[in-house]
Amino acid sequence: MGGVLEQERRGEVKGEEVVPPGLGALRGRSLLAETDLSPAEIGELLDVAAWLKRKRAAGEATPLLAGKTLGLIFQHPSTRTRNAFQAGMDQLGGHATFLGTDDLQLKRGETIEDTARTMSRYVDAIAARFAAHDDLLAFAAGATVPVYNALTERAHPIEALGDLLTLRERFGTLPGLTLAYVGDGNNVCRSLLLTCAAMGVGVNVAAPAGHQPEPEIVDHARALAAASGADPTISLTEDPLLAAAGADAVYTDVHESMGEHDDPAKTAALAPYKVTRAMMARANARAVFMHCLPMRRGEEVDADVADGPQSIVFDQAEHRLHVHKALLVMTMG
Ligand code: CP
Fold first, then answer.
1. What is the DSSP letter of 108?
2. CATH number given to 4-155+320-332
């Protein structure tokens, strides 16, 4: 790559606009957990994502990864994560190759590490969705190219990055905002706790006993919040109305996560944690409703909230594309 594109990539020139610094700044890095990126790096990534969004809206090509290939290995279904990576690579001038875990010799007993070693000889980075977080760590240990966590049962860090881009675009800033997470203290909840806290966004979690995020995650979020400079509140309660009070965003996720089986006791415990209009009325007048999707209307959220004027769930879905592209450009570029 040379000429104008290389100048753009280095952040030197772009007509009237200077490209945000940081393109290629994370070269060779993986994203496995929320704290793999510092708050400053997250800020840069959001800037690059916003820049890529503007370029796409203006119809300007950004072939920054021409000749690069992204491998995708997925053990669970995906609509947003897979499409955002694949479309993102296309839009960046590269290519993506998809493999379900059943398509690989993994199914016949080849080790995760050997699969990672082999795939690393073919592609420039790999996005991996494994059920077990330890499988992702084993894969990353074998890989010699960047590996991106495309969701495990423990964490969904790239979802949280897209959600921060959505919040920042909506409110113009992150420090000082408060997000209420209502429902299952799952992978999305953990990633929001840690990523929001690091960026100065307060998080009020409301979840029933037995389905709350682990105390060490909450303690870690509090430490990150204290270090953020904004020192936002990180709170945990069983009362969803208390969590929603005064919040700028009310967020929920499906009550039955991927890979989980029907659990009547969990369903009953989480039933009171459905986001309703009454709950939204407790939040700020400007508050938004957020959901990582897919959603089940009538279970974790009422349809009049999910499809109502405060809902920004499809902005979140779109922002996955821009954030994935930023991560790809910064780590593969
Ligand atoms: N939110 C999210 O990760 O969606 P997918 O499971 O469709 O990728």
1. G
2. 3.40.50.1370
CA of 323 from ligand 1 middle (Å) equals 14
List the chain domain ranges.
Answer: 4-155+320-332, 159-316
Which of 331, 325, 332, 333 has the alpha carbon at shortest distance from 48? 325
Residue nearest to atom 1 of ligand 1 (CA): 292
Atom of ligand 1 nearest to the CA of 77: 6
Ligand 1: nearest atom to the Cα of 76: 6
One fold for both 4-155+320-332 and 159-316? yes
Provide CB contacts within 8 A for 314, sequence distance 6+.
none
> Residues enclosing ligand 1, CB less than 6 A?
78-81, 151, 159, 292-293
Residue closest via CA to ligand 1's atom 4 equals: 80
Q: Encode pLDDT of 187-220 as tens digits.
A: 999 999 999 999 999 999 999 999 999 999 999 9
Q: What percent of the chain has pLDDT over 90?
A: 90
CA of 186 to the centre of ligand 1 (A): 14
CA distance 233 to 178: 8
What distance in angstroms lies between residue 146's CA and the mean position of ligand 1's atoms?
20
Architecture of domain 159-316: 3-Layer(aba) Sandwich (3.40)
Q: What Cα–Cα distance (Å) separates residue 273 from each residue in 33, 131, 286, 297?
A: 27, 25, 21, 13
pLDDT of residue 17: 52
